[in-house]
Design brief:
By secondary structure, the chain is mostly helical. The chain is built from 17 helices and no strands. It has one domain (about 20-385). It has helices spanning about 10-15, 25-40, 60-80, 85-90, 90-125, 140-145, 145-155, 165-185, 185-205, 220-240, 250-265, 270-285, 300-315, 315-325, 330-335, 340-360, 365-390. Helix 5 (about 90-125) runs antiparallel to helix 8 (about 165-185).
Amino acid sequence: MPPPSTGLSPAALAAGAAPKSARDPRIDLFRGLALVMIFINHVPGNPYEALTIRNLGFADAAEAFFLMSGIAAGLAYTPRFIARGRVRHGLWRAIASLWKRAWSLYVVQLLLSAVALAIFAAAFQITTEAAFLTKINMRQVFQNPTQSVIGIPLLTHQFGYVNILPAYSVLLICAPAAIMLGLRWPRLLLALSLLLWLLTGVFRLNLPNYPNPGGWFFNPFAWQAIFVCGLLVGLSQRQGYRFFPNSPALFWLSAAVLLGVLAWRYVPGLGRFLNLQMHHLREAGVPFNITSHDKTYLSAPRFVHILALGYFLSQLQTVTRLSAHALASPVRLIGRHGLLVFASGTVLALICQVAMMARPEAQWMPWVLPLVGTAALYGIAWIAETSRQVLAAPAEPAPVSLKAPTAEATP
């Protein structure tokens, strides 16, 4: 569990050094689970989709990914923005570390876009099926290459299943301002974040999707709300207090929300009734991001669901113990190498999609390919972890000879 409150205010904590704490195994575990579920959901039509988080309510693994990314960012980068850290290393170094990470995400996004194009173009060359040239928003590239080639590096033209990193990159660019505000006035940061989320739905704010109409599928103006909630969790935990306090009332409220969402989804007739009431509210003028299930604008049912789920799990001691168990180590390992695993999972998922589209009669593929891909993700994470340990290990000193120097060795 996060450390207990120190009794100091956020402003007072911001002036000192961040207390060091052990790595929370829940962060790696849930990020690893989110990455595995994203991979499985990116191979549509497989039976394992029924085991992912989206069957528990409205939110899916994408919301979990953004929440965990915000927590991880708060834990990793907060010490560099605290006053003592700024004096020692300078403010620019703190900002540059986040922007360097955002640049890495941008480069990976371009690489994934190029690989996605190559996979579907190769599939067309092999099968001559024209459908491969129109899948996952690739029609513009093959029918309108000039504008598309402009849009891809600008991040305005994004392919399906390859569109999470752009929003995450934008959020990391803005993260220094959010962290500095959150260190002094965390409640103000949350209020401004929620206000931006609300105004985004009211005025349909979004970044352009050139050359297509509309905006980004993962709208950063809306999805920043999940990221900021996670950032406040990591930021406060890194300073030694809890932004969202331990509260029996909040625990049971989150449990009630989770049960209510399950009933909304699965009790016959209830979902239709509640959706109709939301429709009436929307006609009465309530913003659509409160009265819909829209993913692009992070609708309120999805937002509330992931917050309730995150808070509920964070309060269970059983979850903390299971997260640290040896049997959970493969998933934690996947979570420790998030960007590498996400990029690898994206490529593997697209390859699986192409294989299943090319051979729809092969009924074994939906059962086998996701399992093979998940095992490959673990293997990739294991190789990365082993390489990191080898590089971090100190070099062994050269053996000292006990023999007297020979004449040839004398200078």
